[in-house]
Design a protein that fits this description.
SH3 type barrels; five-stranded antiparallel beta sheet
Amino acid sequence: MIPKFRAWDKARNEMNYKVMVGNCDTDDKNWTCPIVWIEEKKDWLHFDDYECIMQSTGLEDDFGKEIFEGDVILWTYWDEFEDSGRAKVIFDNGMFRLLDIRTEKEVWDNLFDCIENCNVYLQGNVYENPELLEVKE
């Protein structure tokens, strides 16, 4: 799989999906990714907040929508009992994980296990839909 990224432009309040992540600082020993090529704008954008650069998980929800880190999903599990929740997709320790919106604790072992065992629906992302992070009683 070729890594695919998107980037949130805080200045313009918009998500960019056709982006290329790179580094133009040859003195940076950590090889961080401070710049992103925005295809729609035909320009490089410098990022000081690396959380605004999100990688595709390579996985899709039940409707075929691609899931990226920073997305919020609704999952429902049906077996002998029913369980459901809303979770934010994060990248941690080399894998995509889920943080429950209410408890901020991990649910499922990872995103792949959730998709294999649940109905999963992409609700939006934390930048364009910050209201999805609100706890609803």
